[in-house]
Design brief:
This protein has about 220 residues and is of the alpha/beta class. The protein has one domain: Nucleoside phosphorylase domain (Rossmann fold, 3-Layer(aba) Sandwich). Helices cover about 35% and strands about 30% of the residues. It contains 6 helices and 10 strands; from the N terminus they run βαβββαβββαβαβαβα. Strands 5-9-8-6-10 form a 5-stranded mixed β-barrel, surrounded by 4 helices. Helix 1 packs parallel to helix 6 and helix 2 packs parallel to helix 5.
Length: about 220
């Protein structure tokens, strides 16, 4: 079975268009939708926004379903040369707001984890076969709009995208020894107006990634 985690209703709605629902299961107030995509058994869950929501949901999913792997999908802000509508699969992820620099650690360093969490090479390579760009995704409990901060992320972590859940889900999967990938569709680029871009392109970016997931799962 494949576990798919999204953060928002728009991302969920896009997946439901390619999903056949068989059963709805509620655990700790979270709805887990069991069914299939292209004849593959799948459970889809909306975690909500932010790292705590994401990690909580990922652990409940892993504890209650026998999963082959986890896919976290959704939208993200684009960094470097990424454009709205581009798809990015994370080769590795970092929590950019995890800060122990006062204790002589690098920004993003997590004890017993390190700075980066590596995604499944096999699954990343499957995405690359479809022409998806691989790169670095940064996560934090910040909706990044500041251009200077986005440049720092690019320079410090060589990031291609920034969002609010992926690296937290990656950490849970890593600690639970579950293969995972994080795939993002770019909905905006950090600037003073990217909230408008985000709202404008949220639905179309979500639909684009759902179409890709349909192909990938098959």
């Amino acid at each position: 079975m494949i576990g798919i985690i999204v953060a928002m209703d728009e991302e969920l709605d896009a997946l439901l268009k390619i999903f056949k629902l068989n059963k709805e299961n509620e655990l700790y107030g979270i709805k887990f939708l069991e069914g299939n995509i292209n004849n593959r058994d799948v459970v889809i869950v909306k975690c909500g926004i932010g790292k705590v929501n994401a990690s909580r949901t990922a652990q409940i999913l892993i504890d209650n379903y026998k999963l082959d792997y986890v896919i976290n999908v959704g939208v993200a802000g684009g960094l470097k040369d990424t454009k709205i509508g581009d798809l990015i699969v994370a080769e590795r992820l970092v929590q950019h707001d995890f800060d122990l620099t006062k204790f002589n650690h690098e920004l993003g360093y997590i004890p017993d984890i390190g700075v980066y969490i590596e995604a499944s090479k096999k699954l990343v390579n499957e995405c690359v076969k479809f022409g998806i760009k691989k790169g670095v995704i940064a996560s934090g409990d910040i909706f990044v709009t500041d251009i200077d901060y986005s440049r720092m992320l690019e320079n410090k972590f060589d990031c291609d995208a920034v969002e609010m859940e992926g690296a937290a889900i990656a950490q849970v999967c890593y600690l639970s020894d579950i293969d995972f990938i994080v795939v993002r569709s770019i909905s905006d680029n950090p600037n003073s107006n990217n909230q408008m871009d985000f709202l404008q392109f949220l639905t179309s970016s979500s639909e684009k990634i759902a179409n890709f997931i349909s192909k990938l799962v098959k």
